[in-house]
């Protein structure tokens, strides 16, 4: 250390020299050596830079380097983030994850292998053929299940989520559906027929009333008009008073 030590330092230094920079730091600051070429310069920081970890002592707080494969660390022997090409596991940086673990390239950590998990099978569906449950003897029935846990990269793949098998049923005719359709058709025709009947009856009634009215008017025109009876007083001859 250069013997020229100064007390009037800047940048958080408590003591410094022109050649070595900071020699000690103000309270709560961390002292760290930065290499510039062949020379090391002391600086005082509020927190340690990447690749260093801080240690507090009664007389000075220091930043020390992490291991070469560690990007950030809590102590020298406990890494919190690894450099590129390494995977973090239990505070250590490894090139290859231990057995039973797999490398997660997203987090750059060694994580447990997750296998696929599926739910229980559902009950078998009714026996069907071409979407129908009647009109056949041999058909198919199916059952399904859901995936409840998807696997990780090295985990066991998921099984099939549906199964189908042949089934045999007692042949029966599809009468219910046809009968219902026939009944609906008959009801519709009957309703249309009733409406047509009511409409015809109303039309006949209006025509009959119109015909009766026209007949009355025609009869009134054909009857002669009655003459008024002459006034008796007017028909009397005048009395001759000359004799």
UniProtKB/TrEMBL annotation:
Start and end residues of each R-spondin Fu-CRD domain: 11-110
Pfam families: Furin-like_2, TSP1_spondin
PANTHER family according to UniProt: NEUROHYPOPHYSIAL HORMONES, N-TERMINAL DOMAIN CONTAINING PROTEIN, R-SPONDIN-3
CDD domains per record: FU
Subcellular location: Secreted
Family recorded in the similarity comment: Belongs to the R-spondin family.
Subunit text: Interacts with the extracellular domain of FZD8 and LRP6. It however does not form a ternary complex with FZD8 and LRP6. Interacts with WNT1. Binds heparin. Interacts with LGR4, LGR5 and LGR6.
An example Gene Ontology CC term for this record: extracellular region
Bias (Basic and acidic residues): 175-219
Main location (coarse class): secreted
InterPro entries tied to this protein: Furin_repeat (IPR006212), Growth_fac_rcpt_cys_sf (IPR009030), R-spondin (IPR051514), Rspo_Fu-CRD_dom (IPR043601), TSP1_rpt (IPR000884), TSP1_rpt_sf (IPR036383), TSP1_spondin_dom (IPR044004)
Keywords, sorted A to Z: Disulfide bond, Glycoprotein, Heparin-binding, Repeat, Secreted, Sensory transduction, Signal, Wnt signaling pathway
Function noted in UniProt: Activator of the canonical Wnt signaling pathway by acting as a ligand for LGR4-6 receptors, which acts as a key regulator of angiogenesis. Upon binding to LGR4-6 (LGR4, LGR5 or LGR6), LGR4-6 associate with phosphorylated LRP6 and frizzled receptors that are activated by extracellular Wnt receptors, triggering the canonical Wnt signaling pathway to increase expression of target genes. Also regulates the canonical Wnt/beta-catenin-dependent pathway and non-canonical Wnt signaling by acting as an inhibitor of ZNRF3, an important regulator of the Wnt signaling pathway.
GO molecular function: heparin binding; signaling receptor binding
Domain Spondin-like TSP1: 116-170
Record protein name field: R-spondin-3
Organismal lineage: Eukaryota, Metazoa, Chordata, Craniata, Vertebrata
